[in-house]
């Protein structure tokens, strides 16, 4: 009892961090599933475990590498084959993942593999000159260059710098000034600015809505 007062705040702090981490994983899973559905429209991905469904994995592997992987119905063998095909370099992070956890569709392992697949997708389809760079670094540098003249935008990460919606709208405005009225969005709430940018990106460039404005507080990719 003497020390209960000192432990309670720590316990509450740990609990809050755990809740935020769990919520962040949910958002990440939801975003990755939307990305997968954008690629794989004929076979919807409805749950995290569907991200390691062999139909999806072999489809993505063929899309990225051009290699068709026959399904042997031995999940452990087939998932291992997908990883070695997508990531021939054994030093790639994907090789550090547990095959058994992927077979069992453990969410953390599934999301880690999906993130590595997104990196592989980037190396295949990114503009020449950027493919050998790390995805996050290349995108951040491009965003900094595009928004350098916007005083209301300060990009230092992929979380808090984007939550007020200014950065997304500034990116669109930097490409075409007629797309966004930067004065008008100042009167909007953060979630409204985000919705505005996402809707314009979808309508004008067919960019899928992978993020939801209402849960932007938990973004952590």
Automatic annotation (TrEMBL):
Compositional bias annotation for Basic and acidic residues: 9-20
Q: Which InterPro entries match?
A: CH_dom, CH_dom_sf
Q: Where is this region: Disordered?
A: 1-20
Q: Which Gene3D superfamilies did the record assign?
A: Calponin-like domain
Q: Where does the record place the Calponin-homology (CH) domain? A: 133-221
Which PANTHER family did the record assign?
SPECTRIN/FILAMIN RELATED CYTOSKELETAL PROTEIN
* Protein's recorded name: Calponin-homology (CH) domain-containing protein
């Amino acid at each position: 009892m003497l020390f209960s007062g000192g432990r309670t705040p720590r316990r509450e702090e740990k609990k809050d961090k755990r809740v935020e981490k769990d919520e962040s994983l949910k958002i990440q899973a939801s975003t990755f599933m939307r990305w997968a559905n954008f690629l794989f429209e004929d076979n919807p991905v409805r749950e995290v475990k569907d991200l390691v469904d062999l139909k999806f994995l072999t489809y993505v592997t063929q899309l990225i590498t051009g290699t068709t992987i026959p399904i042997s119905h031995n999940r452990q063998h087939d998932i291992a084959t997908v990883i070695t095909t997508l990531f021939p370099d054994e030093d790639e992070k994907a090789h550090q993942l547990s095959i058994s956890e992927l077979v069992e569709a453990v969410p953390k392992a599934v999301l880690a593999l999906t993130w590595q697949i997104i990196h592989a997708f980037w190396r295949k389809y990114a503009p020449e000159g950027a493919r050998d760079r790390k995805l996050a670094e290349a995108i951040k540098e491009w965003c900094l260059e595009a928004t350098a003249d916007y005083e209301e935008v300060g990009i230092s990460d992929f979380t808090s710098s984007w939550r007020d919606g200014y950065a997304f709208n500034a990116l669109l405005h930097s490409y075409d000034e007629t797309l966004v009225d930067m004065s008008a969005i100042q009167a909007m709430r953060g979630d409204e600015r985000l919705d505005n940018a996402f809707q314009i990106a979808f309508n004008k460039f067919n960019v899928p809505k992978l993020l939801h404005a209402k849960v932007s507080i938990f973004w952590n990719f």
